[in-house]
């Protein structure tokens, strides 16, 4: 990949990158080779349609997004099965994904992923669909827990195998 | 919950894993890949592995090293053992620099596995019997097809054997297989009824450029980063030649190649961010991605279908009027005698500029203002009087247009008029579809009607009752040929006639008795014996009598060139072909050698000689044998234009293995002084490829409206929409691999139609509905996407799909000068279809694929 694409990415996506990488997920979860941690990432009552919430999972070096897409989505939780969560590392070359109106968009090479279809690459270069975070809803409290990841997080040989 | 099977960890190749270099099996970009194979139970470690990457750390953004779920598979070798297979993009390749597309990123998934999605690969020769196909031995298969071919030639002449065979590189496999097919069909059989995989005849798609003295692959990837202006004309680079766009065009638009420009340009010459002119009736993803990068440096012209050569001539006339040409260049490098014809017929200098442009506006639907802007972006000298550098790339929007010859010639001439060939940052030619790898004995038809043509139309021949044997190699004409409904119906009838005759009292099992009965059928019926040679069963093979199993990519040693640098590399063998499948060259050699033996037994030396010279033992021998076809390649750098574009004489497999991803650019020449081999980066800096080295001008035809096959629809309200076709980024060709990969089939589950919101509302159509697209040629059911890619009055369909083909709608018109079809234009009606296909709708994304905006 070319130098310019990298520079351009830094210019054009610094805002979203900052949003994703700073001040999030204070509680650190040590990566386990055995199983995914369970992590509280938000409450369904506070989620507004199409207003994404950024968090890190399964460790602090793995930016993710939680969103209510406002319609039934594959793997969705909640009354309308509309709340889903994904890694925001683009599965193509690792650039940060921006959530916009039902999709995750990468401005490095313009891959686009449909968050209501398992992170399907519906346009662009990424041959692997984006990794989806497994969610659990605690019905009593409305708390949402991340409890696994389906699909490989970009830049890893295993989702839980960072040293 | 996931729609597909996902992985969250990948095997690690140990340091001593087998390592091979290859090139992607798909598009014209030809990205470099590295292949790793190691026993399933062995593993490297995060710190010590064959990638030589520290896998214990989170990988960096755009590091150039990617290893994802789709890049791994487990294969079984002939020894019965299972091996991990990883196919990852090569960071060291100057073509892709570690980048990869959604096609190449799934190379590993296409590998044959006995239990996976590719398990139905063809493994044995199959003969059609009463109740379907049965496996037979190679000995029997070769005896049947060799004897039938010989006897058919003896009794009905060589033209009783018709063929449609791929002639390209990459997925089909390259120089080796093409030389094998060439020796068999062109030297051995010598039929005139030859056709190339994607079209009804045996022809170049760009005789309009070649007959000017300019081969269409004359530029380098670097030129896309150096150009002041890139013109994409009927060429959807982002979706079709993806990595060429993202690694070479996109950085230029972003301003990332300005330093390179400064190094390469003349002192004081302006070096700015690149501009792009996109000429396409559709606002495709190439257009909208480019606009997202910088809207003010994108110009999008949307001509009426079939009118592009009028537009090219109009841009040339504007350049002429403004004197945006170099008279010295024209005098020295081009044929000024034929230039008069160009001036009078193409530039129409007898007509006033305003009258000429008013006509062009009316025909093309492009405004004079847009034409003037485009001409200036292409040809107007830069500040300081420096010549602008423009790279113009066209593809199927031009090639498969009405009047193929004139379309291509007009664009080639616009670029030579403005000296946009043979300089860094310039060039004019094809974007390409697949890679190339053509080496064959001379074709029966050397050129267009101006050079000994046109070639025979094999579709019309076989659908009209011509021929006894029809041999189809690595292509699926039931989907891909124009007017395919009629084609399929006609071929099916002839195949069924033959089968019915054979099945009268049981189809004989003994090869000799079988052959005798087929020969009887040739005599008594109109039957057609179709042979399909492929890696999977195809739509066409439903009606074959004999299916021959071929080896695929990675299962034989192949060599090919890419389109954007003519970069010759090795595509090494890293796994076994399934069952008894063989490389295509070997299949044809087996049959050729058998025919030779049959003629020798007859005492017919002349015919035996025609089928000799196919006794190759290895891929490397075929490659070396083919090289002789290129003749003497001793030439200085200034003499490169006289070399065949794909000349590799002197290069060996072993040499290419050492060069790896670096490769060597064809034409390869031997330096006359030292005998050393040199590649050629950029062509036609010194002379053109004509006898006297001068570019030959041609006066294009005037606009005379549409051919009868289309004109019949013009005033018919039943067919109100203009119709054009194209490809999807996700899937390759007929989806022969992709229909087996769940992620791909879920994303593109059905043939689809794009329609403008204004037209959709009149038909009460919404995204996700099903519609029938129809005309008098045929119909196709399609999933509807309502978006602004098309204009009101124009609809777009994916050209073909594993589940249906829009070529049912295309006419049988071909350019009388070249026999190239107009696949991309006709008129249709659209009807909403009752009901939706629920299964597909649940898994397909219905989001708009040309909208990248996030604000």
| Individual helix count of chain A | 2
**CATH level-3 fold name of chain A:** Rieske Iron-sulfur Protein
- Classification by helices and strands of chain B: alpha/beta
- Ranges of chain A where pLDDT stays below 50 over 5 or more residues in a row are 1-33
**Chain oligomer state:** heterodimer
Short summary of the structure?
Chain A is built from two helices and ten strands; from the N terminus they run ααββββββββββ. By secondary structure, chain A is mainly beta.
Structure description:
The complex is a heterodimer of chains A (163) and B (855). With 163 residues, chain A is mainly beta. Chain A has two helices and ten strands, in the order H-H-E-E-E-E-E-E-E-E-E-E. Chain B has 855 residues and is an alpha/beta fold. In chain B, helix 6 runs parallel beside helix 8. The longest helix of chain B has 19 residues. Classes of the chains: A mainly beta (163), B alpha/beta (855). Chains A and B meet through helix 1 and strand 8 of A and helix 6, helix 8 and helix 25 of B.
Give structural attributes.
heterodimer; A: 163 residues; mainly beta; Rieske Iron-sulfur Protein; 4-stranded antiparallel beta sheet; 3-stranded antiparallel beta sheet; 2 helices; 10 strands; globular; B: 855 residues; alpha/beta; Immunoglobulin-like; Rossmann fold; Dimethylsulfoxide Reductase, domain 2; 5 domains; 7-stranded mixed beta sheet; 6-stranded mixed barrel; 27 helices
SSE topology sketch:
The complex is a heterodimer of chains A (163) and B (855).
Chain A: H1 3-12, H2 14-21, E1 39-43, E2 53-56, E3 63-68, E4 83-87, E5 98-100, E6 103-105, E7 112-114, E8 120-123, E9 132-137, E10 143-150
Antiparallel strand pairs in A: 1-10, 2-3, 3-4, 5-6, 6-7, 7-8, 9-10
Chain B: E1 18-23, E2 32-39, E3 72-76, E4 82-89, E5 126-129, E6 132-135, H1 138-156, E7 161-165, H2 175-189, E8 194-196, H3 207-210, H4 221-226, E9 229-233, H5 237-240, H6 242-254, H7 258-264, E10 275-279, H8 285-294, E11 298-301, H9 308-321, H10 327-333, H11 336-346, H12 353-364, H13 368-379, E12 390-394, H14 396-399, H15 404-417, E13 427-430, H16 458-463, E14 469-473, H17 477-480, H18 484-502, H19 511-524, E15 529-534, E16 546-549, E17 558-561, E18 567-571, H20 584-602, H21 605-610, H22 619-627, H23 653-659, E19 664-665, E20 669-670, E21 677-678, H24 708-711, E22 721-726, H25 742-747, E23 752-755, H26 757-762, E24 770-774, E25 779-786, E26 794-798, E27 800-801, E28 804-805, E29 826-832, H27 838-843
Parallel strand pairs in B: 7-8, 7-14, 9-10, 9-12, 10-11, 12-13, 14-15, 15-16, 22-26, 23-25
Antiparallel strand pairs in B: 1-2, 2-4, 3-4, 5-6, 5-16, 17-18, 18-19, 20-21, 22-29, 23-26, 24-25, 24-29, 27-28
